[in-house]
Every structure is written in C-alpha cells, then in structure tokens.
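User: I've been going back and forth on whether these two constructs are worth ordering. Before I decide, could you fold them both?

Assistant: Sure. I'll take them in the order you sent them. The first construct and its structure tokens:
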Amino acid sequence: MDTKESKNIAYSVLDLATVVEGKTPVDTFKASLELAKEAEKLGYTRYWLAEHHNMISVASSATAVLIGYIAGGTSTIRVGSGGIMLPNHAPLVVAEQFGTLASLYPGRIDLGLGRAPGTDQLTARAIRGENFNAVHNFPNDIETLQTLFSKNNKNGKIRAIPGDGLEVPIWILGSSTDSARVAAAMGLPYAFASHFAPAYFLEAIDLYRKNFRPSIYLDKPYVMACVNVIAAETDAEAEKLSTSVLQFFLGVVSGSRKLLQPPVDSMDDIWNIQEEHAVNQMLAYSFIGGPEKLKKKLTAFFEKTQVDEVMATSHIFDHQARIRSYQLFSQIVQEINSVEA
C-alpha cells in the first residue's frame, strides 16, 4: 500500500432496480429515477444498472431500455451498465443499443461488460437458444465491440448504426482473477463485484494493477469497487435497515427468492447458522452504520485498497431511507476526500 498517494475517490451508484414487497416494477422504475436525480445533485459520478434475469426482486432485465429512461430523466450524471452480460448478446446488437444511447445522451453513457449469464442455467438457455452450447470468447467479443465503436471502422463491412465512431467507454466487470487479467491485458478500467463476491477482490485488483498494459483507452490502472452501503443517522437504525439486504442474500443462498422484504428486529428466526455464515461471507464488503462508523470503516477501506472509485448498492426497503443513505454516503466520502486533500 502506498500511503503517500492521496486521491479524490469518485463515488457512484449501482441499482438493481429492486422490487420491494407490496410494490411493482412500475413503482421501482419511478423510485430509480428519483434516486438518480438525487444522486446527480449529490455529485455521484455515475449511475449503473445491472442485467439480471428471472429474479422476482430484480427488474433491470432490459438494461439498455432502463438506462435510456434514467439518462432521459437526468442531465449530467453518467449512466451505464454494471453490466451487460456479454454471453447473452451479439456484440453488434450491444453496439447498436449503446450507440443509440450514446447518440441520445452524448458523453454520458458507460458500457460495463460481464462474462457471466446473470441468471440460472435454464434461463440462460432460454435467452441464448441454439447458441447456448457455443464457445464464448469474452476478449474477442470485447475487441469486436471496440472495433464497432471505433472511428476507424467507417469502411468496415459490418457497422453499428448508430454506434460507429462513438468510442463508447468500455469497462470490464468481474468477480475473479480471470476478469482482472482481461482488463489488464486490454488496458481497460476494472470494476469488481465485491458487494457479493469478496473472496478474490484484493488478489484480483493487485493482479490487474501489476499486469496493466496502457492502451489508447487508459494510460494507468483504474479500479472501481462495488460495495453494499446502508447508512442511517445511527448505527442501530442502519443495522435494522440492513436486515432487508440480509434477507435478500439469504434468498440467493437458499434459492428461495422473494420481493425485497421489510426490515425485522432480529434475523434469528429467519435463518440458520449455516445460512448466516454464508450470507455474511458474501457481504464481507458491506458498510452499515451511522456517519462516524462508516467514515472510519471507509477510510480504512480506501487506504487498504487504494481504489479510484467506490460504487454503492443499497437494498433498503423504504425509499426515503434509501435516498437518505445515499445522501449520507456522499457526505462521508466528500469528508474523507477533503481530509486526504
């Protein structure tokens, strides 16, 4: 760790368009736009949406459509995918979709790419059809996208219209060292899913930095960490709010999915010891508490990891409490940045 290096940590939002108990996707989309507008006012750098399928509590399956809705209702914040699951799509279709978005909202669209299906195998088969068993080459598909967005492709036999020449920024998303190697070799920014896959986080970002090759897109490594954030006025309030995300990940562990559940006073009657252990392992990089606790934990996290950007995802049942969490989080990161400066 280089403690002499000081930097302003950018802060951003990851939204899974979570559907809460008693609400519908329509309610979710309206809440997402309201949050995006507030994030823009608070100085958040970007607002990303994640592609998932066949999950009752996640309504961001048509990711590009939702990105357009959020970008159309805001004016300055960057909006993008965290990410588009590339095995599910032909690169040309992705280039056309994001070329359209970049044409409508110039200078504001990010394309984060993942190599997982974003769903279960049965649903992945339904998405891909006859292509399900085809070999998928993640780096080759990325290179195809780069070509389709390139200004040098104007005479190519296959062109993305729109998309051609727009140079839409591409990010590599990952939860393992494999993705780190791809991002490093291609000289692209790297976003790690430490909010649900913490095991390889430190190893992956170290590998990425050590093996990074400068490119026309990026001259030095750029690391973003996605983390869970539940901020409230007091530690006790935040802990109670966090029981919704605990129930959400319990559903992931147990395979019993539900809409996002309201907070409870105790999880003791909801999970067993093994489930509790599994959930807590997944949520290792979670920041839950009042301002003082979060400031201390985030400062230590930034010093240890030297990340360039932190992306917060917050599964909070009450919409106003969720907005308040993002307000507090922005204040805390700004305070940390002011001390570092």
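The second construct, handled the same way:
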Amino acid sequence: MAINVLPDYCSLGFIGPGKMAESIARGVVKSGILPANRICTASHRNKTREDVFQSFGVNIVENNKQVVKNSTIIFISVKPQIVKKVLVELKDDLNDKILVSIAAGIKLKDLQELSGHDRFIRVMPNTPSAVGEAASVMARGDGLEEKDVKYVSDILGAVGKIWEIEEKYFDAVTGLSGSGPAYIYLAIEAMADGAVAAGLTRDLALNLASQTVLGAATMATQSGKHPGQLKDDVTSPAGTTIAGVHELEKGGFRGILMNAVCAAANRSRELSS
C-alpha cells in the first residue's frame, strides 16, 4: 500500500489518550505518514497512559488547549459522555482546525452545534489500526475542503481501509466493525480452548486459532468468493468440518453473532439520543 506522507505543516493531536487514540497514533507512526514528533496528546491523571504514548515518541503537552494549539488535525477521542464538556471548553480555540470525532453515537450536527465549528469529520475506526488493519468509515461535515478530507483519509488509510459513507449508517457500522474485534477475540479464545480440550498446548492452540482467523479473513477479502461458498469449499461430505459446522448451527452461532451486532448498534443509537 502506497503511503502519502502528510505535508510539513500538518500535525496531529489527540484529545483523550485512550486505547483507540493509541491504536491510531501507533499505526500512523508505524506507517511513516507522520513522525511521532508531530503528534501530541495532553497530560493525563493516569500516568500510565502518558507513558504509553511517550514510549513510541508522542509528545505530551500540558492540557487540551495546548493540543489544539499545536495541531492542525485533532482527534476527539474521549468517551461519548464527556464530548460536550470538552468541546465547550475548547470552543474559542478551534479556529481553522480540522476536527475528527471518534466518539460513538455523537452525530455531526451535535458536534457542530456544541463547538460552533463546521470543519468536522466523524469517524468510526477500530483497534486493529495499531497493526495497520483497521476497518474505518467516515462522514464529513459542511465546512471541509477536499484537501481536509484527503488528509484525514490518508491518516486512516495508512492504518487500514477507509470508506466514506452517509452518517445514517454509523450505528450499524459501530455494531459491526467498531465492536466486531471483540467478537473475533472471543472466537479465537474459544477455538483455542477447544483445541486445548482436544489435547493441544495453549501456545500452539492460540497461534493456530489466530492464524486460522487471519487466513480465513484474507480469503474472504481477496478470493472474490462469497463467505458461504468458501465455507462450502471446506466442508466435504461426512467430513470433520461439517460435523463442527453442525454443532455451531445447533448452538445458534449465526443468530448469536447477528444479535451481537444489532445489540451494539442499538446501544450506539441510545448514546446519540
């Protein structure tokens, strides 16, 4: 994947040094699109969070106002419940900054009204940003130029794949790719537990389960085949795989995953109401 290095005048700030901000910052530094010395976040009451960001070269500044002052592109990466407080506090300092919200459930119109600022992009990333395999979507506000959107798209494209969509689909995206890594981690853990019960060592079981998920996902994205066809390709008559699939179907596996996505999407809607 070709990397578009951001121009020298671009710098990146994070309001809220949480896990998602860390994932994006790590991914950006690893990709080479922006050096760590042009990224900053504010000091935090949890010193561990500061240490994590400093460990890969990110600058720690005194407060959120300093983050805004030192950055051209600012990620609002706090919990949804405190977005209003943060935006009201920073309202007079935003000027021509590009603001990127990754707060679940907070709509563009609310972000713009709270901040008095229309250069907003709303993004739903996920934690595989840290290893360059994010699945992210974005929706743009009213006051952005095409180059602004491109800069943010380049940042997110450097840490995975990015799609621009209509904002009305964000709750569904939150339930799928936003929360989805947790579902897959549960599946990897459960598959490994099954292998341990069948006699494998824990390390081998975890490695095989993780690589199997990675390989299957790569097949799904690169083969051009529907997942159902890929499943059929593995399930020979009266074989081992169809026996396992049968057990999954008896347990309602597909329905449970569908319900998980819908539950997370509904929670996203509750946060935005």
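Notes on the second construct follow. The chain has two domains: 12-170, 180-272. The longest strand covers residues 134-140.
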